[in-house]
Amino acid sequence: MNxxxxxxxxxxxxxxxxxxxxxxxxxxxxxxxxxxxxxxxxGSLSLTGSTLFIQLGVRNPNRFALSATHTEYKLIVDxxxxxxxxxxxxxxxxxxxxSTSIVLPLDVSWNEMTRAxxxxxxxxxxxxxxxGKITANTPVGAHDIPLDAKGRFAPLKPRS
Length: 160
What we know:
Layout: H1 3-29, E1 34-45, E2 49-59, E3 66-77, E4 81-88, E5 92-94, E6 99-109, H2 110-116, H3 118-123, E7 126-138, E8 141-153
Antiparallel strand pairs: 1-2, 2-6, 3-4, 3-5, 3-7, 7-8
């Protein structure tokens, strides 16, 4: 066999093995942050809808900082009705082994809220779920972190 051909095969195989090893190391080094629901508050009101502000807590268990560069999310009521979708390109940094809160704005229409919140008028509360993903840059590459938080919201409850 041609020595040049063998050399190319070894270079390709060596590169593939190195890439696979780096990918495995990155998976073992990176631990997904813990994202939890902290609250929802109603913002501005209009004739067609409202702005909600969804507050999430993010805890970074890693030995390095994470920088979230993009977030996509949707609000689902009673696990069936999507009342709003949003995305944010705001950059948020969570220090190594630190926590922070992020606030996600979400415009919702009265039509969807009415359809979803019929039970809220009777019960005073709505079960909801926020799903999506947070894209974070790390020293070992970009990672998509799943977002799935549940809670209850009392839209008719007066603020204290």
